[in-house]
Amino acid sequence: MFALETRHVTKTYTLEGQPINAVKEVSLAVKPGEFVALVGPSGSGKTTLLAILAALLAPSAGEVMIAGRDLAKLSEGQRVAFRREQIGFTFQANNLVPYLNALENVELMLRLNGKLDKVGRARAKDILNRLGLSDRLHNLPGQMSGGQQQRVAIARALIHNPAVVLADEPTASLDTERAFQVVETFSGLIHEQGRAGIMVTHDLRMVNFTDRVIMMRDGVIAAVYETRAEIDALATRGHADEHSAPAVRSQPVVGGLNLAPAGM
Asked: What is the pTM of this model?
């Protein structure tokens, strides 16, 4: 069973009377414990797709399934509760509560889900420690650097054991050394906890820590890189254009959809 699956997802906007497809016919699936990078140039549709996966934006057409639930069949109240319980996400704006310290910001997700107990508090500390914030547990967001705030947001995205974890440019405010450390730890936690993870990134060097790379262009999936050799070569090339990247293997078709996750 996939933790996350989309079938023919499309998001259409109208500009000056003309329909514009920000996302068009996107079908993909991610298994529990799989970490996927979503890459592509600005305007390719990757951030719009991530917002749809986070249940923050409704698609114009198509299906989004998370943990076996069809998001379109949920009421607004059910969707809010489902998002709080089953989806962890961190975006470029980390949205930390300014009057809560780092530990309290992470614990907040547990509190909202009625699961803040001794075990949860210990786990919150452990995740923050693994992200290099052991000396910042009691600091307010305003007392931390942008990179430190982003790491708190990553810990918050993981703390409540969501089925799916989504990250939009999680290293945008980090220096190179810390970016590698954070994504490596992020990847390790996703694999260790069996979460399905999707990371939008402009920095192709970070894909080295992922299991699969999906390249988007003009709202559609342009390429999929899933062998270790392909992913490592893409990471080595850094910001190289996808036309110079390794050739893409043919993907297995499941029920007429190109849904192949890594390892199939």
From this structure: 0.83
